[in-house]
């Protein structure tokens, strides 16, 4: 099973959509998680169908910011556990014997004064110690100033 996680920084732009379609064609992921789509839920549903994904979970943007998008291919059995403006948490079935694992797509607050809340959210999601758990996303955190690229 392949996962694709991408901070698209705006899925409404034709260039971003072309890049996404090319990446999906090459990678052929079963699950995709996109952050900063900057789209409303109905726009994300249209984008998801155009990408060949019939099922998914969308968290609308707030104005021209944020927006989360999780889509899965048919045959990939998932159960939604929870979602917010900062995460989408699902349980993924792995095989016919019922083994499963957790996937959390995470988008940490870009505002420095709100990052503690993001980490507290992630800690609160850590509630299934016996299930393998993958957390992927943009945590909006850096350890060293040399890691910072672009923007402020």
TrEMBL record:
Coiled-coil intervals: none
Gene3D superfamilies xref list: Endonuclease/exonuclease/phosphatase
Domain Endonuclease/exonuclease/phosphatase stretches: 5-142
Sample GO molecular function, one term: catalytic activity
One matching Pfam family: Exo_endo_phos
InterPro entries assigned: Endo/exonu/phosph_ase_sf, Endo/exonuclease/phosphatase
UniProt protein name: Endonuclease/exonuclease/phosphatase domain-containing protein
Organism taxonomic ancestry: Eukaryota, Viridiplantae, Streptophyta, Embryophyta, Tracheophyta
